[in-house]
């Protein structure tokens, strides 16, 4: 359990949050049991019913399971409801030290974002293009300031808005909704990868190529440019080369020739 100060009536911690932090950070790994209810009551100076309510929140999130006579055991990662807004919020707040979770988020983005960029190049409206360009311009303007802020927003916030705008430009309801739910998770990787001026400038060039391909209605180029952005992200996260090895939706639709060759092989 993370060490906490003695709770008072005004500073009582959110028990579910505290336990989620311990789980996301890897302090309580999948398969391990959380501290006993009586120990949690003592640690947080709360009643047993309060502890049980907090544990039930984690059960509903798929993060733990209650086993009669044994306690609360952390579930495998694939059982966690990562699309649950509260879990997604925990992910952004607490997953920094957990390389497994970071890799899974990165793998999802590699699988999906090139395909979504292709859809955006096919379906983006003038309003969508303006949103994408506004976010990109915000990133550029933020780089001109020492604190990496422009008009009240950070460079990272504009970066997240850029990717969210591309999901919206796909004009697919499911992809757009997924981008909203996963916004904290995407923000986690953005924050971790945007570290130095040289890397940021290279990243901006790659983002620009995505934007231009979408504006010029070049689906294949947009998909390839989106993958190039993720290659930069992978390098910054210590996952260099992984984006090329991970499966992604786009590989099935690289060109009409590829489709024809797959059909002939079949």
From TrEMBL:
<dbReference type="GO" id="GO:0003677">
    <property type="term" value="F:DNA binding"/>
</dbReference>
<protein>
    <submittedName>
        <fullName>DNA-binding transcriptional regulator, FadR family</fullName>
    </submittedName>
</protein>
<dbReference type="InterPro" id="IPR036390">
    <property type="entry name" value="WH_DNA-bd_sf"/>
</dbReference>
<keyword id="KW-0238">DNA-binding</keyword>
<feature type="domain" description="HTH gntR-type">
    <location>
        <begin position="9"/>
        <end position="77"/>
    </location>
</feature>
<keyword id="KW-0804">Transcription</keyword>
<keyword id="KW-0805">Transcription regulation</keyword>
<dbReference type="Pfam" id="PF07729">
    <property type="entry name" value="FCD"/>
</dbReference>
<dbReference type="InterPro" id="IPR000524">
    <property type="entry name" value="Tscrpt_reg_HTH_GntR"/>
</dbReference>
<dbReference type="Pfam" id="PF00392">
    <property type="entry name" value="GntR"/>
</dbReference>
<dbReference type="InterPro" id="IPR036388">
    <property type="entry name" value="WH-like_DNA-bd_sf"/>
</dbReference>
<dbReference type="GO" id="GO:0003700">
    <property type="term" value="F:DNA-binding transcription factor activity"/>
</dbReference>
<dbReference type="InterPro" id="IPR011711">
    <property type="entry name" value="GntR_C"/>
</dbReference>
<dbReference type="InterPro" id="IPR008920">
    <property type="entry name" value="TF_FadR/GntR_C"/>
</dbReference>
């Amino acid at each position: 359990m993370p060490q906490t100060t003695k709770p008072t009536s005004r500073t009582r911690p959110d028990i579910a949050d505290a336990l989620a932090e311990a789980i996301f950070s890897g302090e309580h790994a999948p398969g391990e049991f959380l501290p006993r209810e009586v120990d949690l009551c003592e640690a947080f100076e709360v009643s047993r019913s309060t502890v049980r309510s907090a544990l039930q929140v984690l059960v509903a999130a798929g993060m733990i399971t209650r086993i009669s006579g044994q306690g609360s055991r952390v579930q495998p990662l694939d059982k966690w409801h990562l699309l649950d807004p509260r879990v997604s919020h925990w992910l952004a707040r607490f997953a920094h030290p957990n390389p497994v979770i970071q890799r899974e988020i990165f793998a999802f983005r590699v699988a999906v974002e090139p395909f979504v960029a292709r859809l955006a190049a096919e379906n983006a409206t003038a309003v969508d293009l303006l949103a994408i360009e506004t976010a990109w311009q915000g990133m550029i303007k933020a780089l001109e300031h020492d604190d990496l802020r422009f008009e009240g927003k950070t460079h990272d916030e504009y970066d997240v808005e850029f990717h969210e705008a591309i999901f919206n430009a796909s004009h697919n309801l499911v992809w757009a909704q997924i981008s909203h739910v996963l916004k904290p998770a995407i923000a986690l990787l953005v924050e971790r990868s945007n570290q130095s001026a040289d890397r940021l400038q290279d990243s901006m060039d790659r983002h620009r190529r995505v934007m231009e391909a979408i504006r010029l209605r070049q689906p294949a180029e947009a998909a390839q440019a989106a993958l190039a952005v993720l290659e930069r992200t992978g390098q910054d996260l210590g996952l260099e080369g992984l984006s090329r090895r991970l499966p992604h939706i786009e590989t099935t639709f690289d060109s009409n020739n590829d489709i024809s060759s797959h059909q002939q092989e079949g």
